[in-house]
């Protein structure tokens, strides 16, 4: 089975066999990419996705995981560094800085998601291009171009797996994010097509991301996007210097999909999706903004429970049924003990029972739900214990991350609400104005309104700015209210 596009192959200017590979087809598109060819609405949406991510990065400065990671990276890096860290008032060497910045953007699980790719592409691509563009002294226009390149590649590569990576325990944000970052970095470094093919082959050996962390609430998932960003920059830079990588990074016998999916899931994959619509259909427009700071698979349940909250009014409950897409069950319903009684904020963010209980009791799942006092609250846990997760084979997953909550009350009444399309998904997009409001709500946890306004103007006007200027603005030390 081949996945060639004659026009892309011709543009590659490569040998016929090489031009027939996905690596060469993608490289040819990236090599010919020009920001001027991107519609204005796509560029505008891209800057708002960036703004959303950077607001989360600022908010994360108030959490312990960001401080402990920074301490470790600082120890490894030693003195010095030329790339600012978001809200930390200090610089780190390039790859350390992108690891830290990505961790802060992803660490609260409030970052955007591409539903069909099931990937948080911004959280790896943006730190990679921001860091490398700062090092190169690149323009804001070049930064934005590289960001869009990385997003378009990563989301398509994730989509091609048809949600298979999650089923076998790989986290696409780290695994696939590495390839998006590799191509974004290659665009900034102005690599030719053969070098970009090598870079993707190199990325195959350094891409990673295990979901074992979901078993016990470990912090490692937070590390995945930054590791992918640093790996992508490394792969592109090595290729620039002539390092040789495998030509068939994706469809080879031991390529990405065969080695990470296995025969059964590989048969369900569609590698043609990796290049479908490149330059015509913009996946940036299909990226979903998170309205809830938790795993995207839980949003419909938090929202449904919040909508039912006024009707419930605290009446005694007999049981609660949460109808969950089968493809999401492993992530947010298993192991059930961890989901019923979260041991930490991370457990809470990946728990349908906790999301339902919080929505019912509080009327909203906000960042406050990640406080220890919230996820250990006895009344909330008592409601969570009544939640039973059942598979819903009718769910349109992974196109949408829908769900239904059914509350059976002791007095015989039944309350139910279904969210077939989660808020923020392509079918229910969150407006740019709402993204700005979310940015300010998050940024307010770390910086004053005046500084947040400066960041907003710099990001939304990035085409007329410089990458280094934005990095310096973001690097100003945030207040540490919870230190």
TrEMBL record:
Residues 293-457 form the MmgE/PrpD C-terminal domain. Residues 25-263 form the MmgE/PrpD N-terminal domain. It comes from the Bacteria. GO terms for molecular function: lyase activity. Pfam families: MmgE_PrpD_C, MmgE_PrpD_N. Belongs to the PrpD family. PANTHER family: 2-METHYLCITRATE DEHYDRATASE, 2-METHYLCITRATE DEHYDRATASE-RELATED. This is MmgE/PrpD family protein. It comes from Alicycliphilus denitrificans (strain DSM 14773 / CIP 107495 / K601).
């Amino acid at each position: 089975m081949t996945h060639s596009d004659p026009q892309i192959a011709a543009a590659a200017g490569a040998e016929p066999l090489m031009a027939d590979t996905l690596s060469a087809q993608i490289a040819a598109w990236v090599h010919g990419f020009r920001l001027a060819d991107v519609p204005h609405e796509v560029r505008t949406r891209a800057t708002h996705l960036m703004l959303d991510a950077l607001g989360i990065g600022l908010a994360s400065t108030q959490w312990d995981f960001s401080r402990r990671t920074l301490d470790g990276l600082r120890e490894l890096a030693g003195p010095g560094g030329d790339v600012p860290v978001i809200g930390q008032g200090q610089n780190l060497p390039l790859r350390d800085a992108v690891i830290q910045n990505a961790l802060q953007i992803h660490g609260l699980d409030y970052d955007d998601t591409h539903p069909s790719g099931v990937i948080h592409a911004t959280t790896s691509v943006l730190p990679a291009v921001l860091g490398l563009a700062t090092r190169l002294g690149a323009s804001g226009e070049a930064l934005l171009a590289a960001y869009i390149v990385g997003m378009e590649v990563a989301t398509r590569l994730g989509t091609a797996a048809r949600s298979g990576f999650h089923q076998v325990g790989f986290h696409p944000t780290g695994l696939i994010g590495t390839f998006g970052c590799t191509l974004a970095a290659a665009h900034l470094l102005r690599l030719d097509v053969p070098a970009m093919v090598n870079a993707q082959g190199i990325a195959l050996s350094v891409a990673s991301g295990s979901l074992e962390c979901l078993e016990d609430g470990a912090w490692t998932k937070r590390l995945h996007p930054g590791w992918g960003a640093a790996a992508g920059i490394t792969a592109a830079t090595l290729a620039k210097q002539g390092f040789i990588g495998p030509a068939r990074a994706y469809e080879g016998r031991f390529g990405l999909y065969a080695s990470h999916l296995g025969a059964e899931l590989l048969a369900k994959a569609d590698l043609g999706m990796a290049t479908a619509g490149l330059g015509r259909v913009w996946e940036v427009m299909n990226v979903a903004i998170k309205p809830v700071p938790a795993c995207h698979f839980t949003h419909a349940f938090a929202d449904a429970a919040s909508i039912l909250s006024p009707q419930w009014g605290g009446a005694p409950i007999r049981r609660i049924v949460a109808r969950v897409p089968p493809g999401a069950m492993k992530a947010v319903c298993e192991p059930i003990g961890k989901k019923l009684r979260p041991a930490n904020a991370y457990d809470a963010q990946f728990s349908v029972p906790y999301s339902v209980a919080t929505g019912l009791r509080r009327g909203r799942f906000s960042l406050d739900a990640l406080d220890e006092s919230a996820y250990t609250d006895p009344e909330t846990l008592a409601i969570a214990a009544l939640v039973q997760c059942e598979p819903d084979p009718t769910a349109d997953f992974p196109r949408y991350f829908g769900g239904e909550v059914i509350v059976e009350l002791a007095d015989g009444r039944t309350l139910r609400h279904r969210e077939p399309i989660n808020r923020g998904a392509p079918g229910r997009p969150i407006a740019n104005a709402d993204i700005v409001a979310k940015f300010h709500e998050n940024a307010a946890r770390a910086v004053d309104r005046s500084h947040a306004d400066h960041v907003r103007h710099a990001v939304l006007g990035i085409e007329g700015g410089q990458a280094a200027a934005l990095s310096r603005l973001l690097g100003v030390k945030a207040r540490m209210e919870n230190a």
